[in-house]
Amino acid sequence: MKNQKNSLKGDNFSIKIIGLVCAVILLGCQYKVDGQSAEWDEITNKFIKDYKKFNLPSLQLSFVDNIKNIKSQKSVHAQEAMFSALEHALQKINKNQLPDHAKLDYDLMLYECQLNRHRIDIEKKWLNREEDSIPETKIFDVPYGKEWYAYFLKKWVDKETTPEEIYALGIKEIAKVTSRMKAIQVKSGMDSLTFSTYIKDSTFFYTNIDTIQQRFLEVKKQVSKKLPELFPFLDNVPEVSIKRGTNKNLSQVPGFYSEGTFYYNYFNTPFNKRQVGWLYIHEAMPGHHYQIMVESSTSRSEIQKIFRYRGVGEGWAAYIEELGNEIGAYQNIYDELGKWEWDIIRSVRVVLDVGLNYYGWSDQKALEFWQQHIKGQDDIAFREINRMKRWPVQVITYKYGSNKILKWKSELEKNKKFDLKEFHRNILKRELLPYSILRRQLGL
After folding, report:
1. CA 362, 368, 371, 373: dihedral to nearest 10 degrees?
2. What confidence tens digit (pLDDT) does each residue in 14-33 have?
3. By its UniProt entry, which Pfam families does this protein fall under (predicted)?
């Protein structure tokens, strides 16, 4: 009995020792977490203050405007010091110990540090050049033009992209879209020549403004019935208005979105019926109008409020066109054909943008490539070639983004529990992010 009592005392003593050791460990962990928390708050506060202090210009469409906005050597060197110091400080933080909302801030700050340091490397070279003028022909002709293009590609699209990858994407998308258009032609029961003639018939075009307005309203009604099944946050989205556009400076595009209103362009030129379905869902619901309204109602941290990624919105809207059959926008094969007729232009533009601005293609070479894949639309080719030379990369945002989202959707659909509405929720719930960050947010 005495030995048993001594044994119990020994056990109690051991339990107390173990408890004391655990308490010390927990206290040390708490101290470590609290210490990191204070350090994290200091980093985020300093980043917000310093970033705003530099008043960095927003991304412009024109490469000339972007280059003209480069700040002084003193500012550029100060920016370099700030981003380098911040990146070093972030690398000392254990991201896994941060709460979930802070992990996203961490990713965004690290992303911006690395992207801005890329920009600064080119700007330092630019500021040391001898000539003062900026060639306005295309970015390939500018000093360090290929480096500039690679940077703008990262800024518009994602910092993980390369010109070579984008060129390959364009080639792949041309093949995909061409095959989709061919499948519709086969489904029609006509041979290619008869089909080509048929879709140019006057019955495929509207010439009355009231008829065009009514058709868009019908598509709006059809689509609205399907949206609750596939898209969240609809309670936060006010109704979109539909109006005829009156700005002739924008007549080169079939339509556009601005401040709660979808505008379609009709300037007394026959309006292609096949544009109605894809154009409405791209610009209105659940495209730009929906995404922008959801974004405006989303709660964001102070870090997240600083950044808005211009190119990502076009990727979302282009992805939406791929769902036209599911959401009732395409009532027949010709409505769907309209989506692919515009998409082949987008796909060809991807290759041309890289060709003109990174590989130095001539306008003639670009036109010849266009004519290989798009027949009878050389007037659009000339317009688009000039656009890409003035505004490098912007046209790539549509195809890159839609391709990424479709790829993620395909990967996640392998899980039998995949829910498309939840997929959309996860993309939109923290606003549209850089694709490499968004991919990780989706667990891919």
Report:
1. -90
2. 444 444 444 433 334 443 44
3. DUF885
